Amino acid sequence: MGSTGDCGNGKAAAGGGGLVVPEIKFTKLFINGEFVDAASGKTFKTRDPRTGDVLAHIAEADKADVDLAVKAAREAFEHGKWPRMSGYERSRVMNKLADLVEQHADELAALDGADAGKLLTLGKIIDMPAAAQMMRYYAGAADKIHGESLRVAGKYQGYTLREPIGVVGVIIPWNFPTMMFFLKVSPALAAGCTIVVKPAEQTPLSALYYAHLAKLCTFDIIIQAGVPDGVINVVPGFGPTAGAALSSHMDVDSVAFTGSAEIGRAIMESAARSNLKNVSLELGGKSPMIVFDDADVDMAVSLSSLAVFFNKGEICVAGSRVYVQEGIYDEFVKKAVEAAKNWKVGDPFDAATNMGPQVDKVQFERVLKYIEIGKNEGATLLTGGKPTGDKGYYIEPTIFVDVKEEMTIAQEEIFGPVMSLMKFKTVEEAIEKANCTKYGLAAGIVTKNLNIANMVSRSVRAGTVWVNCYFAFDPDAPFGGYKMSGFGRDQGMVAMDKYLQVKTVITAVPDSPWY
Question: Which family does this protein fall into (predicted)?
Fold first, then answer.
């Protein structure tokens, strides 16, 4: 790739070597309905993982900018229209925003492809439609928020109200920039909250574009409503500065975070040391894929490959620990190696590509380090394990066997295309091995036996269990973890609870004939 041009002012980057580089239109912070420079004037570089070259210079938020964004969100919450609109009015605006996402889907998929190394084709047919669907799901929930009538003792009447929690800080990761944005923002908007989003510094581009789309929603003459200024704010920056300022801010009522357990701990500590704000965390995973003797081996290999190599392994629910029952183990291993070798690694804008580059140099080197650790600890590398391509952050799909439970590659989240293949004899052994992890985000089961499927799904300590499928997400299906995979749920109506307070109102009724 050649010169990046004047990316800091939002102009298009010039591509070389046949690579497609989308035009970068938005590079500034979005605060109170306007794109603005950082107070410090600083910018940071976001890079194309296909080459390592600079895509754009992005305004770098720090504490001063977060203060301004929170102030705008607080003003919009305390005195603005959004929390005071009817749920029906909010739902109309949210549906319009979903319309705009669909209208700009190709451009948005290209931004995530260039910024995160995600497959362009899947962005168009999965990520963007799913984002719009998520927004529409919660648009449908906006006018269904209500409390309960209470049967209280004595001469009183009681009821509850469910009210928006206030200003919400949203800190999202880099692996699914679009889906993570809408996973958090959609229910918060439906609840009537105002929001400050801190996107990952590796992938800020699509979040800024969504801020632009929200601005386009500021007024609609037909529905006489829109997304008011201050309701959605986007402050790209780094975790130790912008992220820390958001999680420790005394005027933020709640923080919703997806990312590593290490940062999740820091956010909890910041929340506790500041105003004891509400926190929800969706953290790491080391998910097991359990394949039983009665499984269709070809189907099981296909599912297992998808579970760990999809999105280059950069997915919190990656089924990176694959347990195969001894009766089909040898056949499975042979076919799994063949499948891995057939996964095409290359430019994510090429429709024939199965796997793009890791998101950046840091993650690229992290994955390679874990591969070396696996070899040094005695695991056998069957295929992959090396960088590929002349430039960029590409790694071959990698499979290890002879992996022991105590090995680092079996215990720590790698977040890359690395499969650990292990053997088991009995159902009870499979359950014990599956639960031998500090995480509990997801699990997969492949079997034709309904009794086994039911027994294992009830015994594995994980927030989501997929039987004879994987990555089967839906807006109506709650998602979150056990143990060190965090707490709180995204998706489903239960996710609304994170963004609502319950208020009890009790009124004396001294002359009531019922008491």
Answer: Belongs to the aldehyde dehydrogenase family.
pLDDT digit string (tens) for the chain, length 515 residues: 333 333 333 444 444 456 888 999 999 999 999 999 999 999 999 999 999 999 999 999 999 999 999 999 999 999 999 999 999 999 999 999 999 999 999 999 999 999 999 999 999 999 999 999 999 999 999 999 999 999 999 889 999 999 999 999 999 999 999 999 999 999 999 999 999 999 999 999 999 999 999 999 865 555 545 799 999 999 999 999 999 999 999 999 999 999 999 999 999 999 999 999 999 999 999 999 999 999 999 999 999 999 999 999 999 999 999 999 999 999 999 999 999 999 999 999 999 999 999 999 999 999 999 999 999 999 999 999 999 999 999 999 999 999 999 999 999 999 999 999 999 999 999 999 999 999 999 999 999 999 999 999 999 999 999 999 999 999 999 999 999 999 999 999 999 999 999 999 999 998 766 65
Active site residue 282: yes
Q: Can you tell me whether residue 46 is helix, strand or coil?
A: strand
Judged by phi (left if over 0) then psi (alpha if -120 to 50, else beta), residue 5 lies in left
E-assigned strand segments in 384-437: 398-401, 418-424
Report how far apart, in Å, the C-alpha atoms of 505 and of each of 6, 88, 156, 502 are.
Answer: 57, 24, 10, 10
Is the residue at 167 inside a domain? yes
86 and 188 fall within a common domain: yes
**Are 239 and 358 part of one and the same domain?**
no
DSSP code per residue over 366-396: HHHHHHHHHHHTTPEEEE--SB-SSSSS-B-
Domain ranges, residue 438: 288-473
Is 488 contained in some domain? no
DSSP 195: E
CB 98 within 8 A of CB 136: yes
Active site residue: 89, 282, 396, 413, which one?
282
Predicted TM-score (pTM) of this structure: 0.94
Overall number of domains in the chain: 2
